[in-house]
Amino acid sequence: MKVLVTGGAGMIGSHIVDLLLREGYEVKILDNLELPTHRNGMPDYIPKDAEFIKGDLTRKIDLVRALEGVAVIFHQSATGGFTPQVSKYVIANSLGTARLFEVIRDRNLSIQKIIVASSVAVYGEGTYLCPEHGIFYPTMRSIAQLEKRRWEVECPLCQRVSVPQPVKESKPVSPETVYSITKYDQERLALVLGKLYKIPTVALRYFVTYGPRQSIHNPYTGVCSIFATQIANNKAPLLFEDGLQTRDFVFVEDVARANLLVMKEKKADFKVFNVGSGKAIAIREVAETLINKLNGDVQPLITNEFRPQDVRHIVADITDISQLGYSPSVSFEQGIDRYLEWIERQGKVEDYFSAAKEDLKKAGIIRSPRWL
User: Fold this and answer.
1) Is 116 helix (H, G, I), strand (E, B) or coil?
2) CA 151, CA 245: separation in Å to the nearest integer?
3) CA-CA distance, 363 to 308, in Å (whole number)?
4) Could you give the CA distance from residue 103 to residue 77 in angstroms, rounded to a whole number?
């Protein structure tokens, strides 16, 4: 069976490609080698056994070529991260997904299944428990609250600091950034059009994915790569807020396995699933782990700066996908070891974040408390 992986040169897409080839599928890759992620052009890990097409989802001529003879599509292509480029997200993510389905429809292609990469970002802030008022789904913390360095989420009824809970797929979505809005576009376009055109479709909401092939050139996405390149250049990793915000880190190979699982499982059709580890890790712990493993002579620097559209705590409830057979197999420490082994093979790495940070501050994406 012939399979297409859009964004197949990226971190997640390329690991899906590897798994597919290992299982005997014929694989095509469509990727535009977007900058700055692919600063050095085509990565050397692209397998010779896969057919590589340099092209763009927004160009129908590229899609027609990529979709020829394809039975299954892993739609991983997207522009991500915290950048001020509003229209770029909409064009690449929303328009690109719409064009994909237009070509399938207009050419009456026989597609058996589509798996689309969604994101934890569609949830907005996580789920919380107030000891007095119970479970609630907060809006994003206000800039006024963040400027006062009141970092934790407070109950809207009593203003008590509340306890983060695992996020279920049933949680109301609240995309609060241009990126997250367009990821929800991708998810909804795929599920709605999949039903309309009778193509089984699945959306996977990835939590914070890391591992080998995470770009060391892109300063706008990937906290592990940003911290690692700072430490490798003897610079302190910069922590927003107080560094105690938590995320669910999931190793890239576990994410790739989840993709093949839902491809094969009919029970997944037309549904949405979280893909995470189910464990919360503080950002400060990430920085300290990387410093220890890189033997860095630096300490994390708490800047008290913040990103107005950032969430405080979010961790996946992975019950639904676990019932299909998913089980994360790589611990955070094991995953970091494997990621750093890969970085060491890349030669000298540069710190691109420090320069990009100034542009992000000018655009208002990073801000400081009023008295700093």
Assistant:
1) strand
2) 8
3) 12
4) 16
Q: Report helix angle 353-362 to 223-232, nearest 10.
A: 120
How many degrees, rounded to 5, is the angle at CA 312 between CA 335 and CA 77? 55
Q: Tell me what pLDDT residue 35 has.
A: 77
Where does residue 265 rank: exposed (0-12), middle (13-18), buried (19+ CB within 10 A)? middle
Termini Cα distance of the chain: 58
pTM of the model: 0.95
Q: Are 242 and 148 in contact (CB under 8 A)?
A: no
Class of domain 2-126+167-362: alpha beta
Give the Cα-Cα-Cα angle 148, 149, 154 (nearest 5 degrees). 95
Q: Which ranges of 161-299 would DSSP assign to H, the alpha helix?
A: 178-196, 223-232, 252-264, 283-293
Determine the pLDDT at residue 370. Answer: 66
pLDDT tens figures, 43-84:
899 999 999 999 999 999 999 999 999 999 999 999 877 677
Dihedral angle sign, alpha carbons of residues 293, 236, 316, 175: negative
Q: How far is CA 47 from the centre of its chain?
A: 23
Amino acid at 74: F
Residue ranges, CATH 3.40.50.720, the chain = 2-126+167-362
Which three-class secondary structure state does DSSP give residue 135? strand
Question: Residue 34 — pLDDT band, cuts 50, 70, 90?
Answer: confident
Q: CA 64 → CA 83, 91, 102, distances in Å?
A: 30, 18, 10
How much is the average pLDDT of 145-163?
96
Find the DSSP H helices in the chain: 11-22, 60-67, 86-89, 96-106, 143-147, 178-196, 223-232, 252-264, 283-293, 319-322, 332-344, 353-362
Alpha carbon 18 to chain centroid, angstroms: 19
